[in-house]
Amino acid sequence: MSKKKMVKNVLTKLPHRWRYIGLVLTGSIILYTTCLFLPMEPLDINPTAVLTEGTSRLYGLHNFVSRLPKIQQDIITEETTEERDVREQRRESIKQSFLYGWNGYKTYALGADELKPLSNRSSNPFGGLGATLVDSIGTMLIMELDIDELLPLIENIKVKPDEQMSVFETTIRYVGGLLSAFELSNHPKKHILLDKAEEIGLALLPAFETAFGLPHYHFNLLR
Ligand SMILES: *[C@@H]1O[C@H](CO)[C@@H](O)[C@H](O)[C@H]1NC(C)=O
């Protein structure tokens, strides 16, 4: 039997249902790949807001021209009393919002990763080392809030030996949070922050021992 005949034989012997499924499947794949290569609609951005040379770090890189408007506030050099009042009022209300969230966490979930704001319970999606606590220290320092009572809590954080931890989350939240708080703080006991960052960083090290140096997604000290 020739190859062509064999293929024909197989096709005619296939149940109808399978032929339809095959047809739909092939059609979807063709449609999907076509969509992938369709040109995208250009972004509708006000051209007067276009960044000009010198205001974007990416401008000119491989002929890249950013079409995003600048969102950063210019550094204030002069302001009227009125403008200063508005700015300070805004500053204060941001601080009050932060404190509202922080006090909820402190009351109902201190030491846990997160507060669940509707049930007032807590959850631990980041290994249970107190993610909100660590994340917040830098913010608190910038807001000139006292971190005195937090340092003993930080000192007490214990890396759990049999916990699946995300390498990414551990790096940005715990190691990054502690290091930036250490940099921002003038507290006489701020070494606690650096010591804990080192401890967690060392625990994380085995995750980087891979053939290509790209870390594992998760790490677990016992496995
Ligand atoms: C959670 O705490 C807030 C503030 O103390 C309170 O108003 C709210 O009723 C509490 N919610 C539950 C479900 O207990």
Protein architecture, described:
This protein is mainly α and 223 residues long. It has two domains: 12-66, no CATH class; 81-219, no CATH class. 49% of the residues lie in helices and 4% in strands. The protein is built from seven helices and four strands. It has helices spanning 3-13, 16-37, 81-108, 131-142, 151-155, 167-184, 191-204, and strands at 114-116, 121-123, 165-166, 218-219. The strands form two sheets. The protein has a two-stranded antiparallel sheet. Helix 4 (131-142) packs parallel to helix 6 and helix 6 packs antiparallel against helix 7. The radius of gyration is 28 Å and the shape is extended. It starts with a helix and ends with a strand.
Distance between the termini: 56 Å
Tally of structural domains? 2
The helix/strand class is mainly alpha
Q: Name every ligand kind in the structure.
A: 2-acetamido-2-deoxy-beta-D-glucopyranose
**Quaternary state, please?**
single chain
Return residue spans where pLDDT drops below 50 for at least 5 consecutive residues.
45-50
Number of helix segments?
A: 7
- H/E series: HHHEEHHEHHE
Major sheet size, sense and barrel closure: 2 strands, antiparallel
Instruction: Give the number of DSSP strands.
Output: 4
